[in-house]
Amino acid sequence: EALVLLVHDDVSGCGDIVMDEKNKRFTLGGKEYREGDYISLDGSTGYIYDGVIPTVDATIAGEFGRIMGWADKYRRLKVRTNADTPKDAAKAVELGAQGIGLTRTEHMFFDPDRIAAFREMICADTKEERIAALAKIEPMQRADFEGIYEAMQDRPVTIRFLDPPLHEFVPTEEADIRALADAQGKSVEQIKAIIQGLHEFNPMMGHRGCRLAVTYPEIAEMQTRAVIKAALAVQARHPEWTMVPEIMIPLVGEVKELKYVKDVVVKAADEVLAAADSEMKYKVGTMIEIPRAALTADEIAKEAEFFSFGTNDLTQMTFGFSRDDAGKFLGSYYDNKIYESDPFARVDQIGVGKLVDMACKLGRATRPDLHLGVCGEHGGDPSSVEFFHKVGLDYVSCSPFRVPIARLAAAQAAIKEEKTEEEAAKAAQVELEAKVAAAKAALKDASEKLSSAAVDASAELKDIAQAGIKSLLAGWEEAKKTFGENRK
Ligand code: PEP
Ligand code: MG
0.90 cut: is pTM over it? Predict the structure, then answer.
């Protein structure tokens, strides 16, 4: 029987695990697990099960397929996926994804083939050395993108450029440090000094995202060439498709930094296209994941052809707490009814949502055809999807297995809105009828008052006339009398 243990926050962290990394073991729920032991994770609930739980592949068929078909008829929001591999991309298509909203390119660098070249790039002393190391990665990255484009079969694909801080790529184990030193022709001490130099107190607010491309534009150049060359190759294999690569610059907070990186991208892309004599179109957009980007979205939209809201970072930077550490104190916030739910799972509509809404309006005021999406984890959360529908995004993007729930939530949001429109029309009709009835009643009352006033008025007139006649007659009698007396 499976042992069920509740994981705090979600499957990205579990404070109850006591890790003994050195001895390759951990304890959880009073049990010790060693390297090679199995546990099973339920990604939806965050439960950990002891041992291997048999699973079946998620597919859309039968009744489920019918419901999904109905959902697609009603929804306005498109549903894309966050996928970094052709396998995930293909699975997402099977589950109904209409494109990729986020490919995190850094995951590809962790592959054992590439990590060596990437570390070489990090340890390089000169730009030339960095370019030489990056040249080794370019064909591999290009092959990754080709695989993803093929899996998506002509659907739009947004590729995000390198985002994490470089310290995530350097070795920590002594043996790996020594191997890197040997490969680089450097001493172990020199490599350790480089690693030490990458240390940051707040790496998530440090040298990452587009800041990497500002300091090392050659990384963005390499990634651009890989994206465009991959698209050209796939276009040549599939002339019936229309490849329009979408390049996304992360962690932008200032239009000038976006412009700086965009110029690097455009130059590299145009060179590749010119060399291939191709007129293929491509788009350059940005993530809106720093509050300053949302606040200056009108400026940012001058340079960005699309926005994708990175609500993971936007939540962490708006609340001022890290997604990796919040699990430690959020429990007390729920217990004390300060927060109702995890803001990293369900978007905070009041604060973060206000920034999203504002950025949509500001962005579209500058560029009416600005394409808007969300690729934070919230893109697969039903109540957040409803919110994104209301603020007018074009699509949500979520992990492959959340695509069906996002499709359903998008349809429910559209139906709810339709219903509220219907209800509003009904309410307006009732209000109009009530107003017409009140006006009729007022009219009737007024006409009754008018006619009774007319009756009163005519009675008064009669009295006046009679009094007048009376006084005329009296005057006549008086005159006759005076005349008679005068004749005498
Ligand atoms: C985000 O910040 O919402 C996002 C999608 O990017 P990442 O989670 O990779 O920082
Ligand atoms: Mg982010």
Answer: no
